[in-house]
Every structure is written in C-alpha cells, then in structure tokens.
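$ run holo --ligand "cobalt (II) ion" --emit tokens
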Amino acid sequence: MIGKLNHVAIAVPNLDKAISKYRDVLGANVSPIQDLPEHGVSVVFVELENSKIELLYPLGDNSPIERFLEKNPNGATHHICFEVEDIIKSIALLKAKGARVLGDGKPKIGAHGLPVVFLHPKDFDGVLIELEEVD
Ligand code: CO
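-- output --
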C-alpha cells in the first residue's frame, strides 16, 4: 500500500537556526517558511534529491509540537511520511487491520496541499506515521 518515503519530519526548538544549519552548513536547498494554523506548525522543507526533510516549529496555542518539544527540548525526529495513491482506501484498509488513525480519522490538507492522515505511534513501534495522497 505505501509508496515512496515522502519526508522525515524533525521538530526543532529554533527554526531560523535549523534552517541555517541545513542551508549554510549542510548546503541544502530549503523552502520558504509556511504557516499551517490547522496543524499548529510552521514548516520548511529541506529538498533532497530522493526525499525531503520537514523542519517543524510550533505555531499558535496548543500546538502538538510544543508538547513534543517540552519532552525533547533539543529537538527530535517527529514523524515519517509515506506516499499513498488513495488515502480513503488506505484508511479503510488500515482500520480493517486494526491500526488507529489519529483525530477524527478523516484526511486533512497537509503542507503540500494534499490530503494527509496520521497513524497512532503505538501501532507502529513508537513512530508517528503520516500518509499523504499523491497524484
Ligand atoms: Co509531515
């Protein structure tokens, strides 16, 4: 069901410093900052030849990243994102196999303007998995 690894997301305590590390130290292309209020995050994408790194920073009150950074004050890997062709079908298959979809179980529009859902980390060895529907 899952296709390519779309990105690995890292929660960072200082977005400007993190951008500088990837752009100026590691020499990667970094996208402009995008605010996603419905997800409670600001994001940038580090563009790699075969994948992307998403740098996440809290936005607004009750950001899920705020709580994550309280537990991981130096920053840490937050989730990994796999591509799927049909997110509604994927959700149905996953639920039938006992995996839990977070929130109301319905896709939201993610950072790339495409539908995404998150799967419960307890069902996947402590890793938060994002699925993104690609064309
Ligand atoms: Co993501």
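-- notes --
The two ends are 14 Å apart (CA to CA).
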